[in-house]
Structure formats: structure tokens, C-alpha cells
Amino acid sequence: MWFMTFRIALRALARNKLRSILTMLGIIIGVGAVIAMVAIGEGAKATIRSQIASLGTNVLIVLPGTLSQGGVRTGSGGVNTLTDSDAKAIVREIPAVAFASPALRRGEQVVAANLNWGTLVQGVAPEIQRIRDWEVVEGRFLHDGDIESDAKVAVLGRTVADNLFGNDDAIDAVVRIRNIPFRVVGVLATKGQSSQGADQDDTVMIPYTSMQKRLLRITHVQTILVSAVSAERVQEAQEQITLLLRQRHRIGPDRDDDFTIRNLSDIAEAAQSTARVMAVLLGSVAGISLLVGGIGIMNIMLVSVTERTREIGIRMAVGARGRDIMLQFLVEAVVMAATGGCIGILLGIGSSEILKLWANWPTLVSPSIVAVAFLFSGAVGVFFGFYPAKKASTLDPIDALRYE
Known about the structure:
Elements: H1 2-15, H2 17-55, E1 59-64, E2 68-69, E3 72-73, H3 84-93, E4 97-112, E5 115-124, H4 128-132, E6 136-139, H5 144-148, E7 153-156, H6 158-165, E8 174-177, E9 180-188, E10 203-207, H7 208-216, E11 223-228, H8 234-248, E12 259-263, H9 264-307, H10 309-317, H11 322-358, H12 367-393, H13 397-402
Parallel strand pairs: 5-10, 7-9
Antiparallel strand pairs: 1-11, 1-12, 2-3, 4-5, 4-8, 4-11, 6-9, 7-10, 8-9
Helix pairs in contact: 1-11, 2-9, 2-11, 2-12, 3-8, 9-11, 9-12, 11-12
């Protein structure tokens, strides 16, 4: 029975090929738009997640506070209040903290033989590798002995290594920073761009003690990077760091903090929220086009019922029941919607791939979205085909046979 009904539905659709194709066009565009738009939204979310992950896991950034003189307040970092002993105390005394690293940074010209490159030089502790989740692909990273001895050693980012050494081995080579020779002990894995578009691989890392004494001649640190033991304890770590630093810096209860703590989890959540809103907006717009396609199916099916009134009367006269008539028209609607859905899936996947290659826009086609789009197209056929099918099944056979 089902097979016969399906054959009759295909034969009826084949009689008006152009009309059937134009009717399916709404579903094709709707499903294709849903898949392409959701792929764009998911690609943007994946890009944001990777950029945030490249900054490190569960990271807090402690910055110096502000200075107020004569009614004028400086911005963040206007007063030097942080030291490496603060970083050591944070790790030692706060259970919610896994790692902490003092950090200094300054743009410098790095020279190797007859080549030079302007880059960001960072003075850090070995713990920065765990905080930033940064792998070493050649050589080694900094260790505690380098910090204690103010060693003149450096770890290069991939961009710096490529520009200074090309395909040559950089390990044990000498680079000069302000005419001070540093021996290269490692090369970092590629990190890519940050969420602000900066090249994270365009950097040189040296022991923070070496940067303090040899390059900057200071005793304080510019920032302290902290990693909490888990994402759930980031807020707890932030509160405990605040209490500890206020105590260490002897800040009274009526005075403002002389430091600032930035929580990257908040930044990550804001970025993810923006991406989610964009994905929902794009999906909603595409869903409306799918709805319009469903209305087109209902419209054509109603026209088909009117045109085939005599055919319905003849079928009823020879014994077809109302549910047989309803099933036939319902199958026709579902076949149109499902066929349009399959073509729309191919169109959506192809469009997202073309957009990725042509516009270099990140897209991510999820199999679950493809499945949902196909099932939804079938559901559209059932929903919008039900009323015309029901109308056909309730026709009076005698009136149907008289219809001209």
C-alpha cells in the first residue's frame, strides 16, 4: 500500500515538473540557508573558543593599580606595586591557584648575525608555559635555574625564529637584545592570533630576572599571570588574591586597591555570548525562509486539490477511503519537502565551503544541524501538507464527480 501510494504521488508530481520544482525551491533555499547560516555561526564560535584557549586556561591577570596626584588619576599601571614575591606568595598561600608567573614586556629589536627583527620581549617564569599551555617544539623552555642565575637564555616564538633563522636550526644560536647576547634554548609551538588579532608567535621569552636586571634595571614586575586550579574556582582565586595582596601591601579597609585583577573567564563568556546571539539570529532568519517555503507547499497543494477534484471523486467512487486520499496528498507534500531538503543540504554545505575558501570566513558544518534541517524539512511537508490533504479527504464523492 505504501509503495503504491508513493508511486502515485511521484506520478502526480511528475505531471507538473516545473511547478513541483518551483515549489521545492522554497524548501531548497530555506534548508540551504539554515545550514549555511548556522555553519557561519558555529565557525565563529569555534574561532572564538580557540582564540580564548590560546590565552591559557583559567587565567587571571594581576596589574598594578592607579596613582592619584593633585586630583589627577593615572591609568592602570600608574604605580609600581607588584613584585615577584607577590607572585610567589599567591602560589604558596592560595589553594585555588595552580601557577603564577611574574611578567614583564617591552618591544625590542632582536639581532641574529646580519638579520634583525622588531618583536615583543617578555620576561617570564617557567610557570608561564603551564599557564599559557604553550608547547616547545625545539629545545627546552626556561627552568628555575635560569631564573635564579639571571641566565642569558631565550625561547623564541615561531615568527621570530622564522624571520631570524629561516630553515636553519635556531637552538644554541646567539641573539642580541640591546647588545646583550642571549643563547637560544628553545622554539615555541605556533599559537596563532589572539582575540585582538595580534600575532602571539611574534615574541621572545627570557627569564624575568634577566629582564629586570639586564634590560630594564628595575625591581618590580609589570604583571602577574595566575592560573586557577579549575574553571569553577577562578572566582574564588580572584577573591583570595585580592585579600592576600591587600594584606601584603598594607591597604586599609577605607582605601582602594593598588592593583587590578582581570578575569579572562568574563571576557570569554562575553565573547561566547556574542557568538551565540549571532548564531541564533542567523538561524532564525534562515528558519523564516524555510517557513515561507512551507507556505508555498501548502499553497500549491491546495491548488492541486482543486485541479484534481474529479480524480478524487473517481477514486472514492471505486472504493478509495478518505484516509487513502489524505495519505496520497500528504505523501506528495512530504516528498516535495524531503527532496527539497536533500538538495538544500547539498546547497548549504557547498555554500559554506565556497564561503570558507573565497572569503576566508570560518565555517563549521555540524552533522547534527544537517540532520535537524532534513527532519525539519520533512516536518514542514507534514505540517503544511496536512490541511490540503485533509480537505481532499473530506470531499463529497458526488460533488467531486460533478466538478468541472
